[in-house]
Each structure stands twice: as structure tokens, then as C-alpha cells.
Amino acid sequence: MWTIPNALSLLRLLGVPLFLWLVLGPQADVWAVLVLILAGLSDWLDGRLARAWNQVSRIGRLLDPLADRLYILATLAGLTLREIIPWWLAAAVVARDAFLLWIPPVLRRLGYGPALPVHFVGKAGTAALLYAFPLLFLAGHDGWYADPARVIGWAFAIWGTGLYWWAGVLYVVQVRRLIAAYADAGGGQRGRGRSEVKTTGG
């Protein structure tokens, strides 16, 4: 548990309330954007170090997507409350996570882990959204950079939301395959389902 990659994930989690305070309290957008950038860098670095040092762990696989989702939700809340983005964009992203709430209980009932392996499409969608948010913050200002940031930020936001939902559909397909494998095995050969998670995940 006590590894440098996991420590980076924990630090990224601690940055979520700091980010929200910067956005909704003093509205220090420059510092808030800096927190987002550092969170994105630490997300890349902890995964790279975990693989390079052979320190991939169960808790790390849980902390990493949890931190990503919390940053996405915190940024959506800040941007929506500041009226920088419309409510429907926030609702579209949040609805995807709500759509998948049934998956962890089903996985536990079948005897698998609390979550599926993170799919590449999901990582791409999350990365696109995390790129979009700092740009949309900059688009809310009056500087020369506002218009380019708005165009690029919305491009990332639209693509990111689409990929985010596509990954959600892929997770549903994976779970349906696990349920079918479990039923075919009569609920007794769970190893078959586990191997399928490894081959279909990303």
C-alpha cells in the first residue's frame, strides 16, 4: 500500500477539496487551473511509476479512477455554479456514472472485484475531459486567450463526453459477458469469468 504511486494518488485526492475552495471561495482560477494541471501530471506519473517499478496494487487500481471521477465531478460543480458551462453538459457526464452504479454490486455478487479494469476508451474520455476543464475556465475570462480556449475546450469536452459514454457501454457489455459466463458455468466456475475480465478490459 505504502508506495510512491499510491502516495501520488492520495495527494491527488487531497487536491479535490482544495480545488473546489479555490473555484467557489476566492475564485482564484489561476491557482485552480494549476491544481488541475498538477493532478493530471500526477495521474500520468503514478501509473508510469507503478508499471516501471512493478508496484501496481489493488488499492492503486481503486484510487486512480476514484481520483479522476472526483476531479471531474468537482470541476463540473465549479464550472456549473460559476455559470461557465451549461447544466446539460454536467448532467450528461454525471448521468453516465449514475448509469453504471448497478455494476459494482453485480460484480460482488458474482464473486469478482469491486470494479472492472479501466478500459482504454474510458481513460481517453477522462483525459479529454480533464484537458477540457482548464481550457473552459480560461474561456470564462476576458483575455486574448479566451476565444481559442473556448473552441479547443469545447472540442475536448464534446469528444470526452462521447468517449466517456462509449466506455460506459463497453463496461455494460463486459458485465453482460460475465453474467452469461457465470450462468453457463452454473455459478461455480468463476475463474472463467475472471479470465474474461482480463481479456476484455484495457
Termini separation comes to: 23 Å
How does the major sheet shape up? none
- Domain count, please report it: 2
Provide the helix percentage. over 70%
What fraction strand? under 5%
**Radius of gyration, whole Å:** 18 Å
Number of strands: 0
What general outline do the C-alpha atoms trace? globular
Pattern of helices and strands: HHHHHHHH
Number of helices: 8
Structure commentary:
The protein is built from 8 helices and no strands. Mean pLDDT is about 80; it is low at about 190-200. It is globular. With about 200 residues, it is an all-alpha fold. The chain starts with a helix and ends with a helix. Helix content is about 80%, strand content about 0%. It folds into 2 domains: about 1-85, no CATH class; about 85-200, no CATH class. The chain has helices at about 5-25, 30-50, 60-80, 85-100, 105-110, 120-140, 145-185, 190-200. Helix 1 runs parallel beside helix 3 (about 60-80), helix 4 runs parallel beside helix 7 and helix 5 (about 105-110) runs parallel beside helix 7.
